[in-house]
Amino acid sequence: MQLIPCPWCGPREEAEFHYGGQAHVAYPEDPSALTDEEWAQYVFFRENPSGPFAERWSHNAGCRRWFNAVRDTRTHDLLAVYRVGEPMPEVIA
Amino acid sequence: MTSPPGAHLPEHPDFLWDNPEPKASYDVVIVGGGGHGLATAYYLAKVHGITNVAVLEKGWLAGGNMARNTTIIRSNYLWDESSGIYEHSLKLWEGLEEDLGYPILFDQRGVLNLAHSLQDVRDSVRRVNANRLNGIDAEWVDPAGVKEICPIVNTSPDVRYPVLGATYQPRAGIAKHDYVAWGYARAAHAMGVDLIQNCEVTGLETSQGRITAVETSRGRIAAGKVALCAAGHSSVLAKMVGLRLPLASHPLQALVSELLEPVHPTVVMSNAVHVYVSQAHKGELVMGAGIDSYNGYGQRGSFHIIEQQMSAALELFPVFARAHLLRTWAGIVDVSPDASPIVGLTPVGGLYLNCGWGTGGFKATPGVGDCFAHTIAHDKPHPFNEPFTLERFTTGALVDEHGAAAVAH
Fold first, then answer.
1. Which domain holds residue A55?
2. Of all helices (H) and strands (E), which one includes residue B316?
3. How many angstroms separate the CA of residue A55 from the nearest CA in chain B?
4. SUPFAM superfamilies from the xrefs (chain B) (predicted)?
5. What are the tens digits of pLDDT across the range B107-119?
């Protein structure tokens, strides 16, 4: 089992965490102005890279807080973890 | 020793296909040499007479999800759109061995989809009714009926997730996945299709909104049309022409036990506890899990998923307690938001998309091969894949099959 370094609790087993998909997907600033195409992009379309991916995790069985991580989807290596509100760190995969 | 070990062995049997150098150009280039790519090439040649076709495979033929799936074939999906394409596929499976002239060990041993809660029961009965209205064989069986069809299922009420009944599709079954791929490859090759292995697509070339060529690890190949059949890597390919897809690639794990005498006469799937089990012809118990939650291209998943899957399997089948696990592996599945595939045209002229089959693409192999070949040949979707456009995520005409897809999506 993979260890995930929670930015508050330190490294814990993966089974304690819940996955939240792509990070930094902001709610539309002016929802009523969106076209159907833009809504579709917001609701259904996400990045799906083979390589570093900024994503959300929640430490469900621990501090119960959400945080962000950059993980390489090819190796599943966690390259960085950072708290919500912090900018995505530069990582070298 | 006067001769090397193995020198006395007979000659290698005849190869089912050769390994040609890629030509400079083809009418149709299919990206992905798995079941869907090979079947598409076969029906392009056989039904539409288009034989100047190359199937490009970055690894070896049928070494991706085609080699990693649990070979379950069924058509008991809820909606009319899904019934159309999955039942079309099942009907092709029923004649495929004669069609290909190659044994595929297609065995219609039936599938039980278990219900473990009242909501499961209601959903299952609804699905049975929907199936029957679409002419698909389906019946609701109570726990005693489950026991009769598959005696090793634990139908005791004293378990965490008791079996309250199941849907049963007698025409469902399994096939030998490798033989299916080899059968299609052999037949496509015989009609003049070039099967090119170790050839990774690294770029897609367009001119004035139309596809013109693919860049590969073995050079540039000009193409009149390009058809993507790359499952988990579809997003990576589509991005080469700036096309975003509503897909997430996840690891999906499966495993086999050591060889056992025949104990499991059918296929059993359980949505609630995330396990599906059949027994291969050779004797291994073949079991699949739900997907790992995170996106991943690594063809491996986390071990706790296997543990959960085993605990579910043991509760359902106490007789498995002494079976030894032989091998586990993972494939990369491209999961779509509505658990239905995306098959059709793209905004780029001459570029066609077949993806989003998630955890259930194997059963669709003949059906989608036929419909996708039609789509490519006529530049227009076949009626069976017409509902499965990329545009449905904008129009809202989703085909929600999370229930019938039967594993965690």
1. 1-26+50-93
2. helix B303-316
3. 9
4. FAD-linked reductases, C-terminal domain, FAD/NAD(P)-binding domain
5. 999 999 999 999 9
